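**User:** My hope is that you can spare some time for a protein that puzzles me. I have put the entry right below:
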Amino acid sequence: MALMSQPPAHLNFWKQHFGQVPESVWDHSDVETLVLADNDLNEVSASIGRLKRLRMLDLGHNSLRAVPESLGEIENLSDFLYLHDNRLESLPSSLASLKRLRYLNISENAFDTLPECVCGMQSLVELRASDNPLTTLPDCVRQLTALRELHLRNTKLKSLPDSIAGLRELRQIDLRGTPLECLPPALAGLPRLEKIDLRWVTNFETPAWFADLQARGCLVYL
């Protein structure tokens, strides 16, 4: 298959059913956006680390159980990283080097806790981790000081850590369909919070401080 039918800066191989990424893809050192979604991939070569100019990478809708450590070498990755709908249980610690990344989607995988490397992605504005068997968030989540949206729908979280108080830029948090039992009062102190979504949460007892949030214009969906 010819892989040069499109500008080298933007390569889109969505739903080509590759099974394995052609080695020639890794030769495009100038590529800035690469879409490999829905390709029946079980693995990705460590050669991906050669794509130093990559700003957006889509590996969603595959069957990946791991991503290579060399992914953390693409420090220019700044726009989007899609890893959703795979079979991931962990991420390599090297991904903490993705200091410029603004959007990460790891939904629909098998994470039982948020990988700590995510806490190193200090420029994240939006984090999607829904539809995972998450039971805990690590305290290092406080490091995501630029985060505006946190999506945790259909996880197994019963509570959130007090360290969430560090998310001073947080606007929205989605906790729909979780077995949540309580929330830390620290949420009430987040100055930019605009929306808490708790629909389909059945064991939750509404705290009194919700009234203060609503009084200042924060939408609370129960």
In short: The radius of gyration is 19 Å. The beta strands are 10-12, 33-35, 56-58, 80-82, 103-105, 126-128, 149-151, 172-174, 195-197, 219-221.
